[in-house]
Each structure stands twice: as structure tokens, then as C-alpha cells.
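Quick one, T. Sequence first:
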Amino acid sequence: MIYIGMDISSKSFTIHAVNEAKKVIFKGDIKPTRAGLRNMIKEMGKQTKLVVFEAGNQLKWIALTLKKIKGVHIHVVHPNEIKWINQSSGKTDKIDARKLAYLARGDMLPRKVHIVEGKSRELRELLSARRTIQSKRIALINSIRGCLKQEGYKPAKGFFSNKDWRDQLKRMRVCNIQKLILEKFMESIEAMAKAEMELTARILEIEHKDIELLETIPGIGGLTSRVLVSAIDDANRFDNKKTISKYGGLTPRIYQSGGVTHLGRINRDGRMEMRKVLLQCAHTVTRMKSYESRPLREFFERIRRRRGKKIAVVALARKLLTVAYGVLRTKRVYDPGILLSGSGAGA
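C-alpha cells:
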């Protein structure tokens, strides 16, 4: 076995490769291309190889390239799992690559980053693009609010969604330069709103059996179910409900010293998009009156009476995630009777 540590940058990939006997097989820089990777692997012979590198914005194409090469295994590590490399003295690309290689040889690597493929990958990319457009559109709306505030105006209700915004803009007593700026901002907002709608329609076209299962859970609709499928991908990769709750960023921070344990705010290290949609779903469930939502509402009310509404909403969001986890693990539709009985995978 050859253990290959790889430090990735946009200009070059720094490589350090060792065998079982700690003999250095290869070290140096290669071109950050598919051909560069294939040639590097070819030069090391036919031995099985384990390539280790940190997750980053080039993960997708690197992983796909290496997976196609016979005898090559990959282990992608999350940067947060190896912070000590960044904190150590004498940090360079060569040192980072060497440390990754020796961690692999010593079987001391942290857990793998899960690489999403297929429909889950398609959903992730579409949802990511949609979030980017959303954030840019909201930023422009806020810029317009700021511009109008400086001129002593407050946008009328529905200004950003009305098609007659040009007429409203003409009636405003602002200088021509400001009108031109606001007009271009509004045209950009219209274009982004249209693009967002088209992406949403494409997202909702994607079908999957897991999406159908998740949509049986109260409060979880077409868009939320696809966000969860894109993030979770394979429910079996999580050991239990605690690990998936942490992945969703819905577990409290723990401060422990001696015999004292204090639970703080929720840990925000998980996937932001999961936490956001689940909190929205939790608010929806609190207003539902159906039999299917009854055990979830009762759970929310128990927490609310003891801890208050805000904490209860977060707890309900976490409950929805663990119910979704149970549904995906068992491949069975949501059954409120299981929650009411206080047992089962979805409890």
C-alpha cells in the first residue's frame, strides 16, 4: 500500500507519498489537472494507493478523477477535524502533505467526508445555486431600502413584487442618477426572481423514493424534503439520532467541568440549509390541527411549558429531523401512532 498525502491549491497540488516501510515514493508538486493526477498515480506503479486530502471547492472533480483509476482509494477529511495541522508551527504545503501521508500510514485519519453522488448531488448543486441567487436578491433589496431611506422614502408594501414599480419610481423626488441606480437594481431583482423560480421548478421535478417518504411527515413539503435528501443522502451513514442531529446543527453545545454540565446554544457547525428549513417546518407544525401532527404538537407543548417557545421550536425541529431519520432508515411512511406509543424508529 502507498499512502499519498495531497495538499490542494489552485496553482499546484503538493504530494508526499510513502509506503509501508516509510520509504518516500514521491514528493513534490504536480499540475492541478486531471492529467496531472493520472500521471502521478501511474508513476507510482501498480500497488494499491490511498490518497488523502482535505475537503474544499475542488473536491468534486478530484474525487471523480481518482475514483476512476483502478487500485486507488480516497479518504477526504474535513478541515475542522485536523485543525491541529493549521495550528502547528512551521506550516507549509509540503509539511501538510507529509502529515496527511503519515496519518494515513498510521491508521490515524479522522472520519471520512461523505461524497454525495447521483440525484442527491444534483439536488445539492441546484439548491446551492438557488440559495446564492436568493441571497444576492435580498442583498439588492436591502441596498434599495438603504438608498430610498437616504432620500427620505420608504418602499410601499409590495414594491419589490409589483410590476408597476417603474411608475412608482418616476413619482419619487430623487435625482436622475439615483433613479438610474434604482432602476438597474430593480431590473436585476426581477431577473434573479425569475431565475429562482426556474431553479425551484427544476428542483421540484426531481423525484426519489426517499422524497416521497419524507413528504408523509407533517410540515415537510416538496422543497424541504429535497433539501433533506440532498444533505442526508444515505441515512445509514449515521450511527444514531444524536449524530444526525449534530449534522443538522440542532444539538446544544456542552460545557462540562468536574461534576457540572451546562447545555448552551445550539451547535451551528452542521449543515445550515437543514437547520433553516427544519426550523421553518417546526413553526408550521405548531399551527397544524391534523391527527398526524398531534404527537409533534404535544411534544412542542411539553417543552414550551417548561422552557419557553424559542427552545421548544428548536426541539421540535430536532424531533422532525430524528423522525425523518427513522423514516429513511426503516423505509416506512410516517406513522403518528409510533410516536404516540413512545416507541419505534421515528420516536
